[in-house]
Write a structure and sequence with these properties.
12% helix; mainly beta; 212 residues; 2 helices
């Protein structure tokens, strides 16, 4: 409950800050919320060694980067919280050559909830395909911290990478509904060991409000 209250307080602060100025490329155009549900068990990624499911909640601030021909470009600043359910299924993934491997097998095969906090930048290419309906491609890259180690990823600093395809529908003069699909990856670029990382596929739904 406290996390939800904090989340909406931050969202409110985005809204208030956005009201301070009205012009300029670096001023917020829209604010929004996005929910993402993803896992590694799908037709692209299906690793039998472990289970991984995540629920992601993002606060979004949209900035207009301009347009070129039939395309519009946006930047999304999106701090987020991820609640991850994880369990090692195949204990043989932890090799006997590893230090304290029996203790690690017990630790990692225990079902656990992991918390990840991240700051992500999303770069959007958008094209109108029908009246009030836009097609979007979003590439995201962010810095994150994860609070629990697993057999695939060390605790602490890591990166997140995302690619999304979706549709945005203008429901009113000020509001937009977004539906999309997302491919994501979490790893730390070998800054720590282990770094097998996670790859997953999911769906996402978002709502945004036009400030100008």
């Amino acid at each position: 409950m406290k996390k939800k209250v904090l989340f909406f307080l931050v969202f409110a602060s985005f809204f208030c800050a956005a009201q301070e100025t009205k012009k300029g490329i670096l001023n917020i155009k829209k604010i929004g919320l996005l929910y993402n549900n993803a896992n590694e068990q799908n037709f692209i990624f299906d690793d039998e060694d472990y289970s991984y499911k995540t629920n992601t909640y993002k606060i979004q601030a949209f900035y207009n980067l301009g347009s070129w021909k039939y395309f519009d470009f946006e930047l999304i600043i999106q701090p987020q919280y991820q609640a991850i359910k994880h369990q090692l299924i195949n204990e043989q993934f932890v090799l006997p050559s590893e230090e304290n491997y029996l203790e690690k097998r017990t630790e990692f095969t225990t079902h656990k909830t992991i918390h990840l906090y991240a700051f992500e930048l999303g770069f959007v290419i958008k094209k109108e395909i029908l009246n009030k309906l836009d097609f979007l491609v979003t590439i995201g890259l962010g810095l994150a911290t994860i609070n629990t180690r697993t057999e695939r990823l060390a605790k602490g600093f890591t990166f997140i990478e995302n690619a999304s395809l979706g549709l945005s529908y203008k429901t009113t003069q000020k509001t937009f509904l977004y539906l999309g699909s997302n491919v994501g990856h979490v790893s730390n670029l070998d800054t720590q060991k282990p770094n097998n990382g996670y790859s997953f596929l999911g769906f996402e739904v978002g709502f945004s409000y036009l400030l100008k």
